[in-house]
Amino acid sequence: MHVHILGVCGTFMGSLARLAKALGHQVSGSDANVYPPMSTQLEEAGIALCEGYAADNLMPRPDLVIIGNALSRGNPEVEAVLNAKLPYVSGPQWLAEQVLPGRRVVAVAGTHGKTTTASLLTWILEAAGQAPGFLIGGVPRNLGVSSRLGEPGAPFVVEADEYDTAFFDKRSKFVHYRPDIAVLGNLEFDHADIFPDLAAIERQFHHLVRTVPGQGQLVVAAGEPALERVLAQGCWSPVVRFGASDDASWQWRLESADGRRFAVRHGERVAHVDWALSGRHNVANAVAALAAASACGVALEAGAAALARFESPRRRQEVRGEVGGIQVIDDFAHHPTAIAATLEGLAAATDAGRLLAVIEPRSNTMRLGSMRERLPDSVAAADRVWWYRPPEVEWSLEALAAACPVPATVSDEMPALVAAIVAEARPGDRIVVMSNGAFGGIHEKLLAALEARHGG
Question: What's the stated role of this polypeptide (predicted)?
Answer without folding.
Answer: Reutilizes the intact tripeptide L-alanyl-gamma-D-glutamyl-meso-diaminopimelate by linking it to UDP-N-acetylmuramate.
